[in-house]
C-alpha cells in the first residue's frame, strides 16, 4: 500500500560527487534532501565520493554516503525506501528500469539531452532553453531549480558594492578541467582595478592561480573550496563561474554572473542563461587558445568590472527568474508520485 498523506516518506537519492565527475549533482540533491527533511520525510544518499567537502555537505544533514550495491533495487527495498531520485548521466537506463520493476517510483534529473535516457516516472529539467515535451510527468524550467537553505535564507540579503569591484571566480567543487586559472588570467589581462577571490579546488589549481601575475590596482586572493559558497559570493560584486548548478544560486541571490561553458552538458544551459540572465564569457577550450574568443571574453569581463548599472540589471533579472521555491514544487511532485 502506498504511504498515506500523513506518513513520512523515505526517498533514496542516487548520485555521486567525485573529483573527476564534479559535485553539482550532489549540491542540488542536498537541496532536495533539505526540503524532504523540512517536511518530516527521510533521505538517504547512495553514491560514491572522493571530495572531502562533499562529505561535510552531506554530514551537515545528519547523513552519509551509502555505497550502492550491485542489486541496487534490492538494497533500497531492504532499506524501506519509498521512491528514488536518480541524478547522474552515466547511470544506465537499466537502473531506473530495475527500480520501477520492483515497484518503486523513480524520479530523474535531466539537463537538456543529458539524462533523458533514464527510465523514470518523473523527469525534472531545471534548465532554461530545454525542450519541454508538454507531458504531466515532466517538470521543465527554472521554476524547478533545487536550491539549498544557505541560498533561500539569504534571498533578501543586500549584495556588496566595492570599489574597486570584488570578483569571485569559482568552477565548482573540483574544477576538473582547470577553468578557474583561465578565467582569472583573463580578468587580470583587462588591466582594470579589482580584487579577485579565486577558489582553488585542489593543490594543483592553487599553484596555477598563485602564479598568475597582476598589475597595479589589482589583487588576487586564493581560497580553498568553500562550505558556504553563497555566503562568499554575497561579499562580491559579481561572479565568474562555470555554467553549472551554481548559476541558479547566484541568480536567486541577485549576483551578476559571467559564465564559461566548460563541458558539453552545459551548452544548453549556457546558451539560454547568457541570453536571459548572465554574461557569456566563452567556451573554455577556445578561451585557452583562440585569440578572438579571448578578446571577446576580455571585453565582456571589462564591462562587468566597469558598468555598475549593467550589473544591477543582471541582478534584477536573475532574481525575477529564480524564486527559490523549485525544490518545494519538486517534492510536491514526488509526494504525489508516491501516493498516487
TrEMBL record:
Keyword vocabulary terms for this entry: Transferase
Classification via Gene3D superfamilies: 3.40.50.11190, Glycogen Phosphorylase B
Coiled coil regions, renumbered to chain: none
UniProt keyword annotation of Transferase present: yes
GO molecular function: glycosyltransferase activity
Entry annotated with the keyword Lipid metabolism: no
Superkingdom: Bacteria
PANTHER family the UniProt entry points to: GLYCOSYLTRANSFERASE, UDP-N-ACETYLGLUCOSAMINE--N-ACETYLMURAMYL-(PENTAPEPTIDE) PYROPHOSPHORYL-UNDECAPRENOL N-ACETYLGLUCOSAMINE TRANSFERASE 1
Protein name: Spore coat polysaccharide biosynthesis protein SpsG, predicted glycosyltransferase
Amino acid at each position: 500500500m502506498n504511504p498515506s498523506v500523513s506518513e513520512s516518506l523515505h526517498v533514496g537519492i542516487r548520485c555521486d560527487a567525485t573529483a573527476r565527475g564534479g559535485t553539482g549533482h550532489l549540491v542540488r540533491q542536498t537541496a532536495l534532501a533539505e526540503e524532504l527533511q523540512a517536511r518530516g520525510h527521510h533521505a538517504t544518499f547512495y553514491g560514491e565520493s572522493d571530495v572531502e567537502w562533499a562529505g561535510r555537505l552531506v554530514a551537515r544533514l545528519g547523513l552519509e554516503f551509502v555505497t550502492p550495491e550491485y542489486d541496487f533495487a534490492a538494497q533500497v527495498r531492504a532499506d524501506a525506501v519509498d521512491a528514488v531520485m536518480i541524478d547522474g548521466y552515466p547511470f544506465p537506463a537499466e537502473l531506473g528500469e530495475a527500480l520501477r520493476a520492483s515497484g518503486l517510483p523513480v524520479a530523474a534529473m535531466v539537463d537538456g539531452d543529458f539524462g533523458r535516457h533514464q527510465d523514470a516516472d518523473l523527469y525534472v529539467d531545471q534548465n532554461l532553453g530545454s525542450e519541454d515535451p508538454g507531458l504531466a510527468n515532466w517538470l521543465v524550467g527554472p521554476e524547478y531549480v533545487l536550491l539549498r537553505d544557505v541560498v533561500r535564507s539569504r534571498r533578501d540579503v543586500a549584495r556588496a558594492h566595492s570599489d574597486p569591484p570584488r570578483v569571485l571566480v569559482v568552477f565548482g567543487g573540483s574544477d576538473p578541467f582547470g577553468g578557474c586559472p583561465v578565467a582569472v588570467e583573463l580578468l587580470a589581462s583587462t588591466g582594470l582595478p579589482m580584487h579577485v577571490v579565486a577558489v582553488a579546488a585542489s593543490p594543483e589549481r592553487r599553484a596555477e592561480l598563485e602564479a598568475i601575475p597582476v598589475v597595479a590596482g589589482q589583487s588576487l586572493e586564493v581560497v580553498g573550496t568553500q562550505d558556504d559558497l553563497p555566503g562568499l559570493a554575497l561579499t562580491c560584486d559579481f561572479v565568474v563561474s562555470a555554467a553549472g548548478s551554481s548559476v541558479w544560486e547566484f541568480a536567486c541571490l541577485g549576483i551578476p554572473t559571467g559564465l564559461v561553458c566548460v563541458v558539453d552538458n552545459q551548452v544548453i544551459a549556457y546558451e539560454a542563461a547568457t541570453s536571459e540572465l548572465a554574461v557569456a564569457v566563452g567556451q573554455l577550450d577556445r578561451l585557452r587558445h583562440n585569440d578572438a574568443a579571448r578578446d571577446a571574453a576580455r571585453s565582456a569581463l571589462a564591462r562587468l568590472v566597469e558598468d555598475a548599472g549593467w550589473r544591477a540589471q543582471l541582478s534584477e533579472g536573475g532574481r525575477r527568474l529564480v524564486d527559490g521555491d523549485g525544490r518545494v514544487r519538486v517534492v510536491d511532485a514526488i509526494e504525489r508520485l508516491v501516493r498516487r
